[in-house]
Every structure is written in C-alpha cells, then in structure tokens.
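Curious: can you check?
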Amino acid sequence: MKNSVIRLENLSMDYGGKEVLDNLSLEIGKNEFFTLLGPSGCGKTTTLRIIGGFENPTCGSVFFDGKNITDVPSNKRNLNTVFQRYALFPHLDVFDNIAFGLKIKKTDQKVIKEKVKSMLNLVGLAGYENRSIDQLSGGEQQRIAIARALVNEPEVLLLDEPLGALDLKLRKEMQIELKNIQQRLGITFIYVTHDQEEALTMSDRIMVMNKGYAQQIGTPIDIYNEPVNRFVADFIGESNIIDGIMIKDRLVSFAGVDFICVDGGFGENAPVDVVIRPEDIKLSPNESGMLSGMVESILFKGVHYEIIVAAAGFKWKVHSTLKENIGDKVYLAILPDDIHIMHKGGDN
C-alpha cells in the first residue's frame, strides 16, 4: 500500500499452546480510520497490543513508517493507546491528567498549558482544567482519556473498545465525535470493536477477524454489500443465507426457484451460499413475488418491522415499514441486484 504507516508481516501469536493469531499480514495507511472487528477471542485486541508494543509476537514483524519496530518498547513508539478502562489518575485534576505525558518529557510549562488548552477545546471540554476526575461523567472521562493520548501528538492512536462503558445514546454521539476528531487531526486511528454498527459508521476500512484470521478487509460498503464468506455475511448486519446452485453466470437456483442475479465466475451447477439482506426483500399481497409464504412473527423495531416469513422450507427474515399480520399469506420479491453469491465454505 502506498503511504502505509503500519505494516504487519506474517504475525502469529501463541498463548500457552493456543494460537490466537495465525500468519496475519496487514497494511494501514496514513490518516486512515482502520477498525479491527470481530467476536470475543478472534485476535483483534492481541493484534492491537502487538502494534502498541505491549505484546511480542511469537513470530512475524511490525513496521512503522517502513522501519521494523517489532522489538522496540511501547514507550519508544510514536503512538498512544486509549483503553476501555480509561486509566485516568483519580488523585490528579483534568489538567494534570492530560499534561502527565508532557511533564514526563519535561516539556516547558508554557507549552504544556497551551497544549492542554488546545486538547480540551478539541474534545469539547474547554474550562474543565481544574475539575477532579470523580466530577466527570463517563463520556467526559472518555474525552479526557482521548485528550491525554493526543496531547503528545502521536502519529497513530490505538483505541481498544473505548466506548464500551457508555450508554447507547452517548456511544452514538461519541462515534461521530471520534470520527470528527480523527479527520480534524489527520492522524491514523486503529480501532478495536465487536460492534458491527460502530465499525460501519466510523471506519474508512475494516478488517473482519475470526479465530486469529483476517476474513475480509475492505470499506464498510464493500464488507456489507459483498461479504466473501458465510461468517462475514452473518456477522456484519443481518442476513438470510440459503443453500443454492449456481446454474450458470447470472442465474442461480435456491428455494426451488431459478433467480436472475448479477454474479458470475462460479462455474456451472456449482453449490454456493446465497445471501439476501432482510431490507432487500419486498413483501406483496399479490403474486408479483416469486416465493409465497406465511407470516409467522412480527417484531416492531422502531424504524421498521422485523417479520419472519415461512416460505419454501426456510424462515425468511424481512425488514419492512409496512405491518403484516401473523398468518397472512404474502409473496416475496427479490431483485437481481439484491442477490449476493458466495463460494461454499471458505471460513477460517
């Protein structure tokens, strides 16, 4: 990758005989908001800790601006970390928490004052210098932790599920704020989360991980619309995943019906997985749909209804703004562009 700031080459990590990373290679660009996404135990936090210098890989290398830093201690790397537990010093006020790293470096007092003031303005907490940590809300503490990490002007900021302790409303607000901060500063953010919506909202690119492997790397749109395997399709958003047969290019059979699609290159009469997002299925009371079924359940989700329709031996999840009634006969319409074909298997 041109202008990469972080490069991982063939990283593996073994904890007591259990391999948590297996031959992982990755490049992260300058000024990129890059997210490591996956379920608990997939290796995302281990990857972040190796980048930060808190763990040494069993094998493989870490490069920073083209230089091998695999054996460089964490305090010698031009990056900082914000953890889920903010690790603020309760005996210090806001000013001294933010200024801590600068004081360790024996920075001039006037410069410290200017930088702390600038950071407080950046995170929207101007005037909070003299407040004690226990006077702050969870969201304010999170902002102070970010300010403390950024005041040293790192080239890369590592964030390990920093919004995990916040309530839903504040979490969503901080997602927007973090992205704005990253764009204003123009530095690289490497972000760890298990929250798919968070990753899709904030990231320039995402690496979806499972069992120590990178399953897919791409933009949020690519990851959502073009998942490479069943794991990614199932983990990112919600999906109907059905067994199918690719009859030929742009023609697939599933649920007992032949559908026109837009995919090709799978060969003829090849077993495939078919992915259809719930929001891409249209319900109709007439026979305009290609599949008929019966409504089994309805759940109101605020902006839409989540409807389960039994059709052709499969329970279809459908998102619709129109309410149906349990027991209604409905028809399912699926457009060619909304049918995504994947190779069978392929998950690590």
